[in-house]
Design goal:
three-stranded antiparallel sheet; mainly alpha; 7 helices; 188 residues; single chain
């Protein structure tokens, strides 16, 4: 088995992390044929054991064209080529999974947006939501009426209390109301 690990380390190159033997698989497997491995070929059972797969999975990968049989009546696999092909297959699988996850996330985002749009439309039809422009216009009209009414207070009070209030008193009340309205306008 150490020969196989050394061969894999040579394939991966010096930049790869050190390889350590895998824990034994709980599946019963045939021992790795070191004589065949040293020739660069490996049996189906030995390749399955090395990759931690079943022999059936190795045959499926072979049928799918991921790995190819060679030598001895096409009952063996080129160790280096098979491991490289399996590693490439797994890398591609991870890339495909990543793009699938992004696609799923995009679909979820679209579904949430569609649901929110439908909720807003339902709330509008029930009269729970009104357009901002309508609310702004209604408040502007109301505040204009309040301002006009407040500015009319000194003149109305001056006319009703003409015998009790001097013109200066009415002017003081007018200034006080105008000051309060200006302060409110500045707070916006």
């Amino acid at each position: 088995m150490s020969e196989v690990i050394d061969l894999l380390a040579d394939l991966l190159g010096p930049d790869s992390a050190p390889l350590t033997p895998l824990a034994p698989s709980p599946r019963p497997t045939a021992p790795v044929d070191s004589e065949t491995v040293s020739a660069g070929l490996i049996s189906e059972a030995s390749l399955a054991q090395l990759l931690g797969l079943t022999s059936a999975r190795i045959r499926q990968l072979q049928r799918d064209g991921t790995i190819k049989r060679v030598g001895r009546g096409a009952e063996a696999y080129d160790l280096a080529a098979a491991v490289r092909a399996y590693c490439d297959f797994m890398r591609d699988s991870v890339k495909r999974q990543g793009s699938t996850d992004e696609l799923k996330a995009e679909k979820v985002r679209q579904a949430k947006a569609a649901a929110e749009k439908l909720e807003i439309a339902n709330a509008k039809s029930r009269g729970e939501l009104v357009p901002v422009a309508e609310v702004s216009a209604a408040w502007a009209n109301l505040l204009r009426d309040v301002r006009a009414g407040m500015l009319a207070v000194p003149a109305r009070c001056g006319a009703e209390l003409a015998t009790k209030l001097a013109a200066e008193d009415v002017a003081i009340i007018d200034r006080g109301i105008r000051h309060a309205l200006e302060a409110l306008a500045d707070d916006r």
